[in-house]
Amino acid sequence: MMVMLYTATRIGLPLLNPYLNSSANFSTGVNYAVSGATAQTASSLNSRLLIPLTTLSLDVQIGWHLTLKSTTTPPPNPSNNTSHDNSLYVIEIGGNDYIVALTSFLYSPSYVATNFIPLVIAKIRNATEVLYANGARNLLYIGVTPLGCSPSLLSTFLLGAKDSNGCLTDINTLSYNHGLSLLNLVNQLRLNYTDATFSFLDYYAAYTQVIGNSSSYGFSNTLQACCGAGPLFPYRYNPLLFCNALSTTTLDTLCANPNTFINWDGIHFTHKFNSVIFNLTVNAGSYLNPPNAFSTCMPSM
């Protein structure tokens, strides 16, 4: 979602206000994202003995959009660029479904790939169909990152097999397969809804490019958290010592230079990394399908 916040800034729009801020101005866009949100509903995950961090799933967020749309006065000119039909709808979800399953220790990465990816993709398809039926014609789908490179999962599965970048091989395979399934969905949607535009941002490939060539992008630390538990813990991460206002360079619970780290707190990325991914994808058109997806809305520098 940070990629889209960068995009809004790049084209001259203010940062998107969160939907739950009921007093906010949503005339230039709205952010429905919720920390820990899943594509599957909480009840569906509960049936598999899983407890997500929040019950505010993709279905809930789509419901919020329909509520907002129904209470927003349409522009006097239907072709006005502020109309819902001309908006860009961004769907980036699924990672939390896989994380909650993996960290339960009930399901292996291969089981999650086989059984959870289809459920997540089905939810994304359903959300798309609801949005399309309500006027959405420009949609962007963002894949999940290589979850096996996350300090939170690396510190959980210390003995897991690693790839050349030091990331968990089987969990990254899961992430990669999610991206393949999501791109397949995008291609199906293009065939089914020819009057709409569907774009795909391959976050997995962009991330792999950066971590595999980290020094050329200015990163010297690719797997540890900058802020949080500090060097006494594997990957500088511990969920009981999460990054907070008391984290400090004095105790080394805050790194001296976040710009050299890919990861901020073990789960989220640094400002520098988000900027690099934005420039690689939206700005340059790499790892973007089609590559010119944003060419008509990006002002010249």
TrEMBL record:
InterPro entries the UniProt entry points to: GDSL, SGNH_hydro_sf
Domain of life assignment: Eukaryota
Gene3D superfamilies: SGNH hydrolase
GO molecular function annotations of the record: hydrolase activity, acting on ester bonds
Pfam annotation, one family: Lipase_GDSL
Family under the similarity heading: Belongs to the 'GDSL' lipolytic enzyme family.
Protein name listed in UniProt: GDSL esterase/lipase
Organism: Ceratopteris richardii
